[in-house]
Amino acid sequence: MDVLIHLFVGLHVIGIAALLGGFLTQMKAMGQGTARFVPAMLHGALTMLVTGVVLVGLNQADDRTLDNVKIGVKLALLIVILGLVYVKRDEEKVDKGLFGLVGLLTTTNIFIAVLWT
Fold it and tell me: How far apart are CA 18 and CA 66, in angstroms?
């Protein structure tokens, strides 16, 4: 079970890397007002959602204690991120504030995962 959990943690990290990497590649464009949500951001957010749900299930199946409040907060942030990226994915330009919000929520989600114990 541990190998399977570690495999999905790795996939979860790849998802966050795609989401955050897509955001970071658009930082210069954000300054110019031409930033857009790239496909990597959508795919990264979807990967995070699927692997996160699988990780919760695997950890519960292994009788590990989970912090349901932490998981709920992270899920809520991810749903907001996913909703924003999905709705605005086809637009040529995204508002700076909205694009920055996705970056802020993504970074917040990372810090919640690492610091909330």
Answer: 26
